[in-house]
Specification:
It is built from five helices and 15 strands. With about 260 residues, the protein is α+β, with helices and mostly antiparallel strands. Strands 2, 3, 4, 6, 7, 8, 10, 11, 12, 14 and 15 form an eleven-stranded antiparallel beta sheet that branches. Strands 1-5-9-13 form a four-stranded antiparallel beta sheet, with no helix packed on it. Strand 14 and strand 15 form a beta hairpin. It starts with a helix and ends in a 10-residue tail after the last strand.
């Protein structure tokens, strides 16, 4: 049995190295994205989940030959599994092995978070992988430079990330919003207490008094919806405007395009 286990691990590593070979030295980020999608997406596969406060984490595997063409494949357990802080800690411990097993250049690990929506659909989904104790599904790819602008360039810097999904916030649901001076509104899509240890689903409504770094003219407010709100990045590119606040809660923009059925 030990021999079989070693053989399986060797095969997994070989498969990962083969996957990395799809990234060409002269390829652009867009070409690398297309190659990763072709390799990982399963035609017709979709996912649906219900919330709120669905618990998850994420693994992003980086591939490429330079920062200019590097892309991140994202895996997320939503709809098939959950990810507790204890499980995420195990994934963190396994980071070096995860990188090695998948032939990746690096990995980005997104700590345990909680979705705020009531229902969620993902219209493009790929294979499932086990990361530590958590089963996750391939849910998309994004250029690393784009990801850095959206969630890695500090707080309050909306950037575009491609993802073919939809959030539903039902009538009567309390939502958490950032108002921008130009009339756009950022809707909180997930929260985490990984940074802000006292943060809970119950006290999100009181978060406004804790902000210290909001840009001039930005305001936090909450609202109980008088009609349902849907957020779905528009076709054909499915580009969502995404950013994080100083507590690493994540928001998606309404008013940039036709993503939202109205601006709340």
């Amino acid at each position: 049995m030990k021999h079989v286990g070693k053989t399986a691990r060797r095969l997994a590593v070989l498969a990962a190295v083969s996957a990395a070979a799809f990234i060409g030295a002269c390829a652009t980020a867009e070409q690398n994205m297309a190659a990763q999608q072709k390799q990982h997406l399963i035609p017709g596969k979709q996912l649906h989940a219900t919330g709120p406060n669905y618990q998850f984490c994420e693994v992003g595997l980086f591939y490429g030959t330079s920062m200019e063409n590097a892309v991140a494949d994202f895996y997320n357990p939503t709809g098939i599994d959950h990810c507790t802080p204890e499980q995420f800690a195990q994934i963190e411990k396994d980071k070096a092995q995860i990188i090695k097993d998948n032939g990746a250049r690096d990995a980005w690990l997104n700590p345990t978070r909680y979705w705020t929506w009531d229902e969620f659909w993902v219209y493009e989904v790929g294979e499932e992988k086990q990361f530590g104790p958590v089963k996750m599904a391939y849910m998309g790819v994004v250029p690393v430079e784009v990801m850095k602008k959206a969630v890695g360039a500090g707080h309050y810097h909306p950037g575009q990330i491609s993802r073919n999904n939809k959030y539903l916030f039902k009538k009567g649901t309390r939502v958490y919003l950032l108002d921008l001076p130009d009339g756009k509104v950022l809707v909180m899509q997930s929260w985490t207490n990984f940074t802000n240890k006292g943060e809970t689903a119950a006290n999100l409504k009181d978060l406004g008094s804790q902000f210290k770094q909001l840009p001039p003219g930005w305001k936090f407010r909450t609202k109980v919806l008088d009609r349902e709100l849907t957020v779905q990045p528009p076709a054909p590119n499915h580009l969502a405007w995404v950013t994080q606040d100083e507590f690493n809660n994540t928001y998606q923009g309404c008013g940039y395009d036709a993503a939202c059925n109205y601006v709340p």
